[in-house]
Amino acid sequence: MTLTTILEKYGTHEKCIEFLESVRYAKFAFCPYCGSLKVAKKKDKKARSGYRWNCHDCNHSFSVTVGTLFHNTKIEMYKWIMAIILEAGAKKSLSSCQLARDIGVTQKTAFRMLRKIREATKTDQGAFLKGIVEMDEAYIGGKPRKQNNGGGEPNKRGRGTKKLPVVGIAERNGQIRVVPFNKKDLTAKKFAEFLQSCVDTENAVLMTDEFPAYKSMFKLMPHMTVNHSAGQYANGYVHTNTIESFWALLKRGCYGQHHHFSEKYAGDYISHFAFKWGNRKESTERIFDNIIGGMLDVAP
Ligand SMILES: [Zn+2]
């Protein structure tokens, strides 16, 4: 998307409303109050877009934003669209400070907008993962290790730190499922539950390192391990490089945001990164369409 096409397509409030209608009413327009399809556009000088919709069944008048998070928003519609385009195109994660500068809102507003956008990008938890799947845990949050040289104990690395544990399962070349875990739940039983909730165990092969909690996974599905402590990072096709590179992306993203990173928002960040990961080979346009579609379904 070039700046020129963005301006042409979304440069005014009217164009943004037309665009939202083309997405939300792609198949047919409908009344958000009674669901009727007997609706028609009528001119309305008071409406900013110059018209409203009218329902012939319940007589309500409405605009395309009713029932979506864009309704009664105090933020200009084109700023929302710009924010979504910028977020869709961001390789890592857009920071609220950057967004605030780019679209001319306060950092607080930018932070709230990004939260709403990311809510719409929660990954589809429906489809089961298959093929070669790699499972691993990581620890996120806290400050980058290199900044902790102020005399105190450096942040420990890996198992045994005070950071937030997350567990993930990645398809090689595909989707990923990641969830925050309580430290006390890093057990074989809980790992098996998570695995069975998102992997098609009949049509998949599991690869992990030799952490004890993975040891009994062979009872559920074919399981191969790579011995990191022996310096073995890849043994032919047996490796966990896919999920390792996801962790690298997630950690860089969290550090970039670390003044706002907290456990409260951890789940949102994680699912947002999982979305970015699943779409890493998609075009900005396609990601933008996915986000807009998701946002129109998010209640205000
Ligand atoms: Zn109606």
Structural category is alpha+beta
What is the first-to-last residue Cα distance? 28 Å
Q: Could you describe the largest sheet, including whether it forms a barrel? A: 5 strands, mixed
Total individual domains: 2
Low-confidence stretches: 144-155
CATH class of the largest domain: Alpha Beta
Would you list the SSEs in sequence order as H and E? HHEEEHHHEEEHEEEEHHH
Fraction in helix = 25-40%
CATH H-level superfamily title of the largest domain: Ribonuclease H-like superfamily/Ribonuclease H
**Bound ligand species:** zinc ion
CATH topology of the largest domain: Nucleotidyltransferase, domain 5
Label the overall shape. Answer: elongated
Across the major sheet, the strand order is 6-5-4-7-8
| Overall CATH architecture of the largest domain | 2-Layer Sandwich
What value does the average pLDDT take? 85
